[in-house]
Design goal:
Distance between the termini: 32 Å
Strand content: 5-15%
CATH architecture: 3-Layer(aba) Sandwich
Helix content: 25-40%
Number of domains: 1
Order of helices and strands: EHEHHEHEHEHEHE
Length: 309
């Protein structure tokens, strides 16, 4: 059944492949890139929008008419705020979100500056990893989740009388792309040079777990403005050792089990379908090996296996 997906960080790598495969499945996709939004609906010239050109090229595919591209830089609070307001506008009459539901949000934005050894890294580079891999995705999720409540009564942005007010927008499944480097119980000491990256992903994992717990508490207490039955399933996903330009670094050890973006995304789509909202194993409740609180976030590999936090 066609769904509405929002992919944050879609200009290259696995984010781009997420968009491509979701479109192929017939879904409507809202995707983001860091480049400026064009004034027209035509794809911008590659020289002007850099790495977003591959994303724009998908508008020319058979289902490209189902693709909406917005600007978002998760390392900038102003950009996150502006992006959220653009999403809100899509909830107006005639917009792709007029029914008030985003089935799946994938927060894929990330950075890896190698090496990032803790004993050598600069303040600026460490902060860059934390802003892009941790703070940005979590605050982007926070802003998007706020769309489930009516907009403030006072707004600096005038509402077009043609479109009318925006519909509150709910998110059914919220997916954070994490990494096995972020597991604190399965420490990978041999990954010399991944200190800041691992720290940023470990912090992301803890942050999203707290987010899931907060959402569940608000749901039960009737604080989410959507009713007790309206829940958001929060998942963390490890995409595997994917061959992308971000992972194209010279390492002192052999990386085993390298897979293509196509294989990784194909498998993760299946995991999201099973573990996400309304899935046969929603949130891992059926396959859970131990008792967990309702609404707890769960961590999965691209193969659908539970991964330790």
């Amino acid at each position: 059944m066609p769904q509405i997906w929002l992919i944050v960080g879609a200009s290259r790598g696995i984010g781009l492949e997420f968009v491509s495969q979701a479109l192929t499945l017939g879904h409507t996709v809202i995707a983001t890139a860091r480049g400026p939004s064009p004034a027209s609906t035509l794809p911008p010239p590659p020289s002007q929008y850099g790495n977003a050109s591959q994303l724009w090229s998908l508008t020319g595919t058979p289902n490209g008419h189902n693709l909406k591209i917005l600007e978002c830089d998760v390392s900038s609070e102003a950009s996150i705020t502006s992006f959220t307001e653009q999403v809100r506008k899509l909830g107006r009459k005639g917009g792709v979100l007029e029914k008030g539901v985003i089935d799946v949000v994938v927060l894929n934005a990330g950075v890896l500056v190698y090496p990032n050894r803790i004993s050598e890294i600069t303040f600026q580079t460490f902060a860059h990893h934390l802003h892009t891999n941790t703070i940005g995705p979590l605050l982007t999720a926070q802003h998007l989740l706020s769309l489930s409540s009516p907009p403030p009564a006072v707004s600096k942005t005038p509402i077009s009388p043609t479109w009318g007010p925006s519909t509150p927008i709910s998110i059914r499944t919220l997916v954070f792309i994490s990494s096995d480097s972020g597991s604190t119980t399965n420490f990978r000491a041999f990954e010399d040079g991944f200190g800041a990256y691992a720290a940023s992903k470990a912090a992301l994992n803890q942050g999203l777990r707290h987010l899931a717990a907060e959402l569940e508490r608000k749901r039960k207490n009737g604080e989410n403005g959507r009713g007790e039955q309206e829940r958001t399933v929060v998942l963390a996903l490890h995409p595997g050792e994917v061959s992308t330009d971000m992972a194209n670094v010279s390492l002192d050890w052999e990386v085993e089990g390298i897979i293509s973006p196509q294989e990784s995304i194909g498998c993760m789509l299946k995991v999201i379908g099973e573990k996400g909202w309304g899935g046969i194993d929603e949130g891992g409740r059926v396959s859970a090996e131990r008792k967990e609180e309702d609404g707890a976030a769960t961590f999965w590999t691209w193969e659908g296996k539970r991964y330790p936090w």
